[in-house]
Amino acid sequence: MLRHFWANVVAVKRIDIPAADFDLAMTLDSGQVFHWEKIGDGFVGTVGDRAFYIEQRGNLLRISPPGPLDRLNRSSLRKIVARYFALDHPLGEICASFPDDPVMNAAREFCRGLRIIRQPKWECLGTFICSSMKQVGHIRQISHKLRERFGQQRRLENRSIFTFPTAERLTASSEKELRKCALGYRAINLLKTARLVASGEMDLEKMSILPDVDLRARLCELPGVGTKVANCVMLFAYERLRAFPIDVWIERVLREKYFLRARQLKAARLRAFTERYFGDHGGYAQQYLFHHARTAGGRRAVGAEKVGHESACPSRTKVVTACHVR
């Protein structure tokens, strides 16, 4: 219905943003965010509490926000979108820092232009609490239901778009209401965490000053947050680019590509290896390995595509590779 949406947008509302070394579609489909919808040649979604239509034309992002624009608004919105998509990250340098091995090289080549999004802290935390042991498609459904039921409506042309609900809004709901959004047992975890955030007992902004070890420990105090979810929040919301979330896809990659000959491999050993081997930009390396495995090289076994906790352990299958770690 909105296939020709962009053609109907008044030219004065269009804002162009330089976006070299960036792939919008790949970034939005890489398992970081779950609410953007493909519409025609672009995507509709929210950045914080603002709704946007965004499409990519070569090295430009073309965005259409709602409402009238003046020069000040244009400048502000450019900064908001550029920051959200981390267009200031030196992607060439980051990719050059990855380990030089066949597995990482294949992922780096496949994922050119993929960037780590800077997400709002509560939105990211709430979303990944909902993601435990769920397939990507299911997480998208949960995100949309939460937004439609508890978020604020925004209008973009003739389309309704909803923001992620605030912690305060969720605190006013109940576990029963949240379960209507297909959350299952995650409902009570989301509700309890929302109460801690809304009350100020858990100040997500103040936690920004904590070093990685302390930030991870603090996040893990929250209901529904284990090491994997904490690392996701650190990477996608706090821009801790060393954080290396290990889900079933990444565990499979590590086991089958880097530890093929290991008979026993504990989670602690995997974490120690990723910290040492992937270094300062391990989060980017992880995202490239994850997206490549899930999209290009991943086996589509039943239940394989899950963004779950690290307790899940995939079966081992022999894979021929030049990267073995004893």
Keywords:
326 residues; two-stranded antiparallel ribbon; five-stranded antiparallel beta sheet; alpha+beta; single chain
Give a written overview of the molecule.
It contains 15 helices and seven strands. It has helices at about 5-10, 25-30, 70-85, 90-95, 100-110, 120-130, 135-150, 165-170, 175-180, 185-200, 210-220, 225-235, 250-260, 265-280, 280-295; strands at about 15-20, 35-40, 40-45, 50-55, 60-65, 155, 160. It has a five-stranded antiparallel sheet, covered by helices on one side. It is globular and about 60 Å long. The termini are far apart. Residues about 300-325 have low confidence and may be disordered.
Describe the secondary structure blueprint for this structure.
Blueprint: H1 5-8, E1 15-18, H2 24-28, E2 37-39, E3 42-47, E4 50-57, E5 60-64, H3 71-84, H4 91-96, H5 102-110, H6 121-130, H7 136-150, E6 153-156, E7 159-162, H8 167-171, H9 175-179, H10 186-199, H11 212-219, H12 227-236, H13 248-258, H14 267-278, H15 282-297
Antiparallel strand pairs: 1-5, 2-3, 3-4, 4-5, 6-7
What structural category arises from helix and sheet content?
alpha+beta
Strand order of the largest sheet: 1-5-4-3-2
Level of helix content?
40-55%
| General shape | globular
Q: Termini distance?
A: 55 Å
Strand content: 5-15%
* Count of strand segments: 7
Major sheet description? 5 strands, antiparallel
What number is the mean pLDDT? 86
Estimated radius of gyration: 20 Å
- Give the helix tally: 15
Low-confidence stretches: 298-326
In sequence order, what are the helices and strands, one letter per element? HEHEEEEHHHHHEEHHHHHHHH
